[in-house]
Write a structure and sequence with these properties.
The chain is built from 12 helices and 14 strands. It is an alpha/beta fold.
Length: 332
């Protein structure tokens, strides 16, 4: 198997990352490090390691961005399994061994991640910590499928995947969207299954300069547009069932608007706010949750993301006989 490590000006963290890769209990791997146009001496750190470790290859295609760097590495990779790694994170010693064994024993799974731990403690923000708590709870292929439209359910630096399946799906794509989430949505849409190991196998660095905080491709609007595009193509929304959307607030409707651009029109809004119930918003009636108790169930999209509300809504729907993935989906 091959570890792919794109990097850009990562001299401050790269040594620690490389130490963790070279300390793996699985020794039979190669490492392709892709220099994305660094100017800080990062490439020289790789070259020093190469003198003592023939498993390491350095590619220097110039400044291409993460997508270009990943596709460059995949074009040079000859092994069936590929592990993704970032240049500021830390692998736990058994990561490659456990993920390789899992994929060898589960041929039906295309991609596997792991639980992660955030570090360093002083840099961790509450919102990101809550996201990782949620993400670490999505383990099985079914849980990942059911939550794929909430948020990226697997930390991308923790994944190992089947190279041929990713290349057959088109590799990594560039655009005004988060490339890691887009890849997982595309794999999901094509019927590929994904899973996650319960062990914490990656220390995931949080820092003020991470792209998720500074690049508009990882902002709320980009995620909302991307979700809507793949949700619009989901076969469950093509079936002849009424579509109800849980959440009639202004912020929720703003996110829903991305889906409605694809021609969808809900038959009702669902909301718990008594001030909204009975009103018509965009000429669509707002109903209370008990109105979902009916013989012929509509398909429900829940767009409510307030802290704890997502779990409460899922519990309420299940109590009324709705099944996740079959009768409703949670949307971020």
């Amino acid at each position: 198997m091959t570890v792919v490590l794109p990097f850009y000006n990562a001299a401050d963290t790269l040594d620690e990352t490389l130490d963790s890769i070279q300390a793996q209990t699985l020794e039979a791997f190669s490492l392709i490090a892709v220099d994305d146009g660094s100017t800080d001496g990062s490439a020289e750190l790789i070259r020093r390691r190469m003198r003592h470790d023939p498993r390491i290859t350095l590619l220097q295609p110039g400044r291409q961005g993460v997508v270009g760097a990943m596709n460059c590495a995949l074009s040079h990779c000859q092994t069936p399994l590929v592990a993704r790694m970032d240049a500021d994170d830390i692998m736990h010693p058994q990561r490659l061994e456990l993920q390789t064994a899992f994929l060898q024993h589960h041929p039906e799974i295309t991609l596997v991640g792991s639980r992660v731990r955030l570090f360093p403690e002083p840099e961790i923000q509450d919102g990101f910590a809550e996201y990782v708590r949620w993400q670490n709870g999505c383990l099985s292929a079914r849980e990942i499928d059911d939550n794929i439209y909430v948020e990226l359910p697997i930390a991308h630096p923790s994944v190992m995947f089947r190279r041929d399946a990713v290349l057959a799906a088109g590799g990594y794509l560039d655009g005004d969207f988060p490339e890691d989430y887009e890849l997982l949505l595309r794999l999901h849409q094509s019927g590929q299954r994904m899973a996650k190991l319960p062990e914490v196998l990656l220390d995931w660095r949080d820092s003020p300069g991470r792209l998720t905080r500074t690049d508009p491709r990882y902002g709320r609007e980009a995620f909302d547009r991307l979700r809507a595009r793949y949700l619009a193509g989901d076969p469950r929304l093509q079936q002849p069932r009424k579509l109800f959307i849980w959440g009639a607030g202004r912020k929720t409707r703003k996110r829903v608007a991305h889906l409605l651009l694809f021609g969808f029109r809900p038959q009702a809004w669902i909301d718990v706010d008594p001030r909204k119930i009975g009103r018509r918003i965009n000429d669509i009636e707002v109903l209370a949750p008990p109105m979902l108790e009916r013989k012929v169930k509509p398909f429900v999209l829940s767009y409510v993301n307030n802290h704890g509300a997502r779990e409460q809504i899922a519990n309420a729907l299940q109590a009324m006989g709705y099944q996740a993935g079959q009768d409703y989906l949670l949307v971020g």
